[in-house]
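The records we work with from here on pair a chain with its fold. These numbers are not coordinates but entries in a learned vocabulary of local backbone shapes. To see the layout at work, look at the sequence and tokens printed below.
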Amino acid sequence: MANCFSFTSSVDRCYQCSFNHAGLKSTTTDLGEGTVIHCWAPKKHEDAKPAILLIHGFGANAMWQWDYFIGSLARRFNVYVPDLIFFGQSYTTQPERTEAFQAQCLMKMMQVSGVQRMSVAGISYGGFVAYSMAAQFPEVVEKVVLCCTGVCLEEKDVDEGLFQVHSAEEAASILCPQTPEKLKQLMKLSFRKPVAPLPSCFLNDFIHVMCTENVEQKTQLVEALLKDRKLANLPKITQTTLIIWGDQDEVFPVELAHRLKRFIDGNAQLVIIKNAGHAVTLEKPKKVLKHFKEFLNNQIPKLESNLNGDAESADG
């Protein structure tokens, strides 16, 4: 689509302006050994503010996934929004593809930035990375927010039919869509409400801008996520944790939210947002942001259904 107007690129530039307006700047950190991390970081780190790391999932880039949140959070936190490896401008020449390696790289980047303590929040795959950071670096990570993060899944869940897909390869073909049909399938799985039909030219434009780079490596990330995964091998984190889930999630069914809360046990608060799918941060951003702020400011919300049909409910 060279020499043509790109709607996706135009939206991306708008998000760049939004991040700049929120007080963030584009930074690149060379970690050595062929690994580079791009991150939106505070133009000026304020020591009086706590730090929070916002980690994106698959799909659109970090700006598209976190834009709604940064303006509000940046007023009270030093906000860091990185590109995970093989997304955006981050990359590595190392063969590692695990979420543990992603977590280690983000921690190194934050240490280079001078951040000693932080909270972490992750959406979907980003939540796997956030969880791994909390497990590996408990002395650094203070609080954890996990949005629709199936970290408690097991490889056998795929074989037993818990998911809409039946293999890592099929999942990767949807998470890294290369055709309008696959992108439509991803949107159908991600959103509770049907997305308005979009012309193929818009879908192809989005794929061209967002989904054509590092496809093989991203497929390997998905495969590494599922390979030999067992709950018995998952470390239990000790940080206070907020779990947010859409009750209509078709990517990671809500059963995994309850499984995760039981696994973490007394340290976890579960919020299930009604009438929302996997893309809960996009479908119900106001509600998600409200719970973010209450949790991060130590005001644990009382999770009671309200009368408008758009309620939060607690596990158990």
About this structure: The first helix runs from residue 7 to 21. Strands lie at 24-32, 35-42, 51-55, 78-82, 91-92, 118-123, 141-147, 240-246, 268-273, 312-313. The chain has a mean pLDDT of 92.
